[in-house]
């Protein structure tokens, strides 16, 4: 029996979908990738979640094998036992990828995987998180709310040279683009010093409890600041506010507090 700490692999069948099954334009890339059969390495330190996802991915026809590991180092130690690396699927759960340790992990995997694309699987699908992931160099961002079929097709898209992001992100960015521009206003004209601190925390994806702790204020006060910030930005939700704040900080020379 394979040890729990070792990578586990699943091989797909011949890649022929069940009769009558719907195949999207992305799914049709599988025939072109058949000659490039390799390993899609699923990295997740949660054993049950990792094995369930591995089994689900393996049940869908695809031109690659699924190898599930707890860490990227585990894959390196056992790489010679599997087909060559084709892509890495990193499950980050609800983690904030702007946290220093998570950013370093992503950059480490990109260095190790070389030309093989890194795809993020996450519970969060806010715009700022996704934009940051793309800035790091990932080739896909898959929210855990999608189906396994979409996940398979997103992997195939990355293997074909494309980049997958959820449609909700595109719609959110469109709303920001179509909204009244505010980034040409100086931060100090729009916000108080305290609001600038809270706005920066929103940009970094921090939850209210963390913001309250770091700024030494009550959580209810944080909520008031966020509501006022959203009103000034004319943002309808926190995701839109974070994206607009990102544009403000990028185009401002104000020293963050």
Automatic annotation (TrEMBL):
Transmembrane segments: none annotated. The keyword Protein biosynthesis does not apply. Residues 1-11 have a biased composition (Polar residues). Residues 39-159 form the Response regulatory domain. GO terms for molecular function: DNA binding. Residues 1-29 are annotated as: Disordered. Keywords: DNA-binding. This is DNA-binding response regulator, NarL/FixJ family, contains REC and HTH domains. It comes from Nitratireductor aquibiodomus.
């Amino acid at each position: 029996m394979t040890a729990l700490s070792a990578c586990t692999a699943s091989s797909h069948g011949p890649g022929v979908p069940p009769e009558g099954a719907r195949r999207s334009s992305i799914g049709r890339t599988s025939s072109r990738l058949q000659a490039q059969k390799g390993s899609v390495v699923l990295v997740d330190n949660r054993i049950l979640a990792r094995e369930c996802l591995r089994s689900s991915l393996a049940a869908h026809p695809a031109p690659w094998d699924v190898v599930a590991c707890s860490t990227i180092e585990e894959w390196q130690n056992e790489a010679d036992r599997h087909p060559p690396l084709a892509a890495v699927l990193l499950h980050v759960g609800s983690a904030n990828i702007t946290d220093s340790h998570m950013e370093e992990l992503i950059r480490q995997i990109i260095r190790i995987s070389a030309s093989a694309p890194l795809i993020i699987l996450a519970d969060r699908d806010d715009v700022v998180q996704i934009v940051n992931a793309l800035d790091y160099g990932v080739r896909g961002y898959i929210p855990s709310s999608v189906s396994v079929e979409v996940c398979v097709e997103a992997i195939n898209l990355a293997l074909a040279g494309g980049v997958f992001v959820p449609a909700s992100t595109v719609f959110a960015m469109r709303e920001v683009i179509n909204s009244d521009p505010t980034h040409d206003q100086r931060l100090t004209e729009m916000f108080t010093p305290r609001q600038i601190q809270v706005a920066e925390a929103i940009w970094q994806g921090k939850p209210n409890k963390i913001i309250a702790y770091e700024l030494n204020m009550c959580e209810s006060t944080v909520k008031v600041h966020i509501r006022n910030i959203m009103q000034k930005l004319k943002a309808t939700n926190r995701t839109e506010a974070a994206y607009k704040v990102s544009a403000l900080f990028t185009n401002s020379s104000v020293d963050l507090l």
